[in-house]
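Case study 2.
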Amino acid sequence: MTTEQLQVNANDEQVEAIAQNQLAKHATQVHKFGGSSLATPQCITRVLDIIRQNCQLNDVVVVSANGDTTDNLFALYQLAQEQQDIPLEEQDPRALEQAILSLKNQQETLITELLNANNARQLIQALSVDIEQLKAWLCGSLAVYRNDILAFGELWSARLLSALLNEKVCPSNSIDSRDFLVIDNEVQYGVDTATSAAQLRQRKQFGKLAVITGYICKNEQGQTCTLGRNGSDYSATIVASLVGANNVTLWTDVDGIYSADPRIVPNARKLHRLPNGVAKELGRLGNPVLHAKTLLPLINQSTEHHTHLHVASSFDAEVIGTEIGKFGQIAKQELSVTYLNDLLIAQSESFLGDACAKACEVFSPICSDEKQGFMVINQSQQKALSQWLASHDTEVTFKPVAIIATVGHKVAERGDIKARFKRSLKSTKPLHLVNSDNGHSVIAILVEPCTTELLNNVHHDMTKDARHIGLVVAGLGNIGQRFLEMLPTQLNRVYALENIHLVGLLSSKKALINNDGIDVSQAMNLFEQEAQAYDNEQLLSWLSYHPYDELIVVDITPSEDFSLLYEPFFARGIHVIGANKWAASSPTAHFNHLKKLSAEHNSLWLGNTTVGAGLPVNFAIDDLRQSGDEINQIAGIFSGTLSWLFETYDGSTSFSTLLLDALSQGITEPDPREDLSGRDVQRKLLILARKAGFELSLDDIDCQNLVPEVLQGLSTEAFLARASELDAYFAQKHQEANKKNACIRYVARLQYDELSEPQLKAKVSLEVLPTSDAFASLTPCDNIFLINSRWYQENPLIIRGPGAGRDVTAGGLHSDLVAICQQLANKQNQVKIKGIN
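Prediction:
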């Protein structure tokens, strides 16, 4: 239940009862909103919608200052400092006054545009008090009040959002994090967990959504402190650890963590899932989204409670972001490339051997090498490092450098990755190649700054094969099981499938979904042991938030109901391989809608096994049309069952005996009337006609039902008991054909003639054919397809072969899987980030 369903006034008597009920049902989650997410009235309105859809009353919201407020406060501080550094008679207070007034006006604009008049009046009064205090501090001892001045941004942001929630969404209270969050100092940021947790419990008001200031806290002496630039993310994970939250979501202006800075590398891939250690290393090495210390409170928790971190965009909340936590092998295969310029390499005897560890403990360098006696540091650390070495009577040399790094789970231990990284840098000639201490990165030290061109080239070389494609198999009957049996060999044999991961198995009633992958060699055993009941809503929910670059659903069901899911599949950008005929032969309006939807969302839809099992008839028609040919006739025997029946039937045995024999062998459907009705052949002809570019529906195809009307409405059991009533009709047809030295076959025909009326004729029916006809002498169960076109007029194109069978059908599905993966390999996704681009 979301806060939209909990919308009540703050004084409603039912609030506490509702909140207690929600607390019992839902684990706490923390949602943090960055400054860009709260920059304008429009942005804040989006945030309200996100909270309405995603938050419970027992959750916690952490906020940054609105937009550039912190930057403006820091600019005020610097301006005041400059004024104090010049003689009194030369000071001009007007610049400072104007800057303060501009800041006040910005805040008042947010308040008046968002709140009703009464609530706006109260917040503006509180803002006026703060502005007077700000003026006093700016004219006083600046060094003492620096952090208090910077804290106003978060204080105003939390106060405004809480007031808006109270007015429009749900009961809320704002909490100044300085009232509970205690750290040791502004270097290590060590949290006094016991004290902070106890004081937070006192500040949270039961039945109200807490809105907490990010970035600011206090030290043990009660003085205001900050957590560094972008420290609100760190605030959010600290709060999560204090309240035992299951999830933390960082709502920002990007929709996830990318394999490189997407503002510089347009072809960067979103990393849907990142192991904790890898994410921490990315933050350390300059990832633009992750604060270096953000993950510490989550990683340091006991192994019995795991908090996952999500990065999502408040500008496009429906887009799946990045999740950071504990995952299996698929997530551990992710690679990314990051860089840092404006660094220094420091060379000294104090960095040799065991002494290097002491220096690293003090300065936490980007990287170091105790054998060669160097470490790479930020330029801001140069003075402190020089002083530290001077106290050890050791000389040091500094040289400007940059770094570029490949980051991934234990990449330092993967020889293939290191070799590829080294090859990608062959034209750059780095000074050194260093493994990080945690093994999650390989770092190249560059003598020149890392350029955009170098970053893009290295990123391409390191991530070109790093896509992850999830595979969901629906339908675990005879064909589905054979498809899965073939999958391990295919994955090892076919290069195009190297990024495929089996992640879902579906029957009509149960599902096994595993984001970390399902062992393909044990797929059916795992399904039998672990599958759970599901419904379509649950399935679509998972498919909406899958952690893969692409997702393919292989539909091997005969279900019309499952085919109705193609529309939401395509709307989510999911690709479909269908042996299921229902969607491809659905009413014209629905079929055209599906084609349009799949095109709009770049969803691929392949269905070569809908007709002819593994025979390439769909492919041939596609190829002819794409090459510029025009098809004017399609004909053939499309049913393996009817092919077997009429190739085998010679009049010596009654037709009903033959039919029951075919049923016992599994050649027919459980109810043979499904085959004898001609509906399956009718659907197949419709599918091929649409492939050939003709727009028609099932009703446009005449269909001869071989089941007498008196037998059509019976139960299957009753029909089989009266099957002998078919014998006289087929005996008569066979005798008539024999007299003409001919045979009977069930044939599908489509003919287009511009000069005839109607121009398009389509039918499926029992025909008498000369024994010399191409359709007359087939191996039982074979299909045959005849195609006439502008290019194939005098001598038509004929495709013949087994039209049924578990091996050929499963093989046809694998052919489609390879084809779809080859198309996806060439797919380029240009990164579009609403908050930046």
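The first helix runs from residue 15 to 25.
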